[in-house]
Amino acid sequence: MLQDKRLMRRFNRGDKEALRDIYALYKDDLVSLACALLHDKTAAEDAVHDVFARLVAGRETLKITRRLRPYLLSAVANAARQHHRRQASRAEVSLEAHGSPDFGGDCPPDAGALFGEQQQSLARALAALPYEQREVVLLRHFGDLKFKAIAARQNTNLNTVQGRYRYALEKLRSLLNGELL
Amino acid sequence: MKPTDNIVQLLTNMNVTPDPDSDRQKLDAVLRAQAQSHLNPPADLPPNRWRTIMENRITKLTTAAAAVLIAGVIIFSLVVSPKVTFADVIKPLFEADTFAYDLVFGGEEGPVVHDRVSGNRIRRTTSDLPNMVLIIDADAAKILRLDTAGQAAALIDIAGPLEQQARHFIALVRETIERQMADPDFEPAEPFRRQIDGRKVVGYSLGDDRQRVTILADADTGAPMQIELDWGRESVILRNFEFNIPIPEDQVSMNPPAGYTMHQTQMDLSNLSDQDLIESLRVWAEYLRDGTFPPQLLKQEYVKQIPLLREKLGPLPIPDEEKEKMGRYFIQGMMYLQILNEMEWHYAGAGVRLGDASTPILWYRPQGSETWRVIYGDLRVEEAASDQLPQ
User: Fold this and answer.
1) Global confidence as pTM
2) Which residues of chain B have pLDDT under 50?
3) Which residue, A80, B44, B56, B149, is most buried by CB atoms nearer than 10 A?
4) Strands B152-157 and B261-263: what pairing?
C-alpha cells in the first residue's frame, strides 16, 4: 500500500518513470485478467492499453487513495466489459451455421492457449461461462474484490452477484470434471 | 483438498505466458501516450465525464428516455422473418383478457400446474394433486382451497409479504419484459431459431442473471409456444397457451361451490417468519429424507415433494391435527423462501444430519440488518457478524 501511494504521488507530480514502474509492477496481472475475460489476446492488450491511456489522461486529477492493483484490475474489467458488449451487439446468430442458439457459452479454440499448461483447462472452462459469471469469479479470486464491490461494478445487487458466483463455480466444477484432482 | 479449493487456487494464480516482445511494444505505446500528454494537455474531458453527466438528473432522465425510445424502436423493428416480429410474439401476452397455460417448476421432471386466469383471479390445479383446486384472488390477497373429493373448502390469507407475489405468471412475464425495455442500458438480443416437437420456433430472450424470460413462438404465426422464466435460483416453463378463452365466473369465484363445507385452517401466509422455514427443514429431514436436510433449498423442490409428504404422513399413527401441522409447516416454509430470496443467504445443509449442533446449514442477513442469522443442524439460530460467518 505504501509503495502504491509513493508511486501515485510520483505519477501525479509528473515523474515519467512512475508510469513505467506501475506498468512493470502490474501489467502481467492486468493482461492475465483481460485475457481470461476476453480470451482474445489482441482485445485484452487493447483493454490494458485503454486503462493506461486513461491513467495518463487523468494524471493530474486522478487521486487513487487505495491499493493500485484492485483499482487497475477493476479498470481493466470495465474496459473488457465494454469490449465484450460491443462484440456481442455485432455477433451474428445463425441456426444454419451453429445448429443451436448462442448465449455466449461457446469456447473459442484458442481460449486456453494464452495460459500456461496447468491453467489451460481452467481458461477454456472460463471461456465457456456467460460473461457476467466469468467476470464475477475472476474479480473475486484473481482481483480479490469483495462481492459488494463487484456488484457496484456490474451495476447489480449483491444477491445477483453471489448467484452468478455460485453458478460459475458449479459450472466450472462440472466442466473440469475431475481434471484438476 | 476439495475440487472447489483447487479451482479457487488456480483462479488466484492465473497468469498468461509472458511475451517480452509484446510487453515492450505495449509499454512503448503507453510511454508515447504519456510523452504526448506532457506536450499537449489532454483535450478529452476528465475521466469522470460520464459520472458528471449521469449525476445531472435532467440529463439522466433525458438520456434514459431517449434510450428507452431507441430501444423500443429497435425491438419492434426486429424482423425474424417477413411474417413474425417481436411485437407479434408478445402481443397476446399483453392484450388477452383471459388465458390458460400449463407450467412446470424447475425442469421437465416436476408436476404440471394448470392455470386459468381471468382478471386477477387464477384457478390452479396440479397434476399430482388431482383433488385440489386453488382459486387465487390477487386483489384480495386470499386463496380459496377446494378439496373436490371431500367437498371441503378453506380460505387462506396471503396479505403481507407475499401479497405482491400473488400474481399469475403471464403478469410476471409482462413485468420482466417491461422492466428490461425500460432499462437505459437495454440492448435487445438477436432472435434465435429452434425446433420444438418438429415445429420451427423463433426465440427471444430478455433479462439478466437475476431475472430472464425466454419466449419461443411459432416461426410462421408468432403464437407463443413456450415461455421460460428464470429468476435467481428458480425456473419455470410455461406452455400450451390459450388466449381469450371463456372462463365462467363460478370457475374463479371465491365462494365455494354448493355443497362444500367451509373449514377453518390455521395456515396463515400473512405472517411468515424464518420459524416456518426452520420447521419445514425439520419436516424435510424427518419425513422426506433419511434424517438429512435437502440438497438444495428451492421452492421447486418443495413443490415436487408435496405429494410424497402426503404419502408419508398418511399412514403414520399420529393425530390428524399433527399431520396437518407438518403439512402446514412445509407449505409455509416453502412460501417463506420467496421472502428469503429478497435477502443475502447461503445454504449448506446438503448431507447434514438433523441434530448436528456443530454444522451451520443456512445463514442469511435480514434486510436492514447488520448481523446475520445462522441456523445450525440442530435447528438452533444464532446471530453472527459478517466476519464470523462460516467459510
Assistant:
1) 0.48
2) 1, 40-82
3) A80
4) parallel
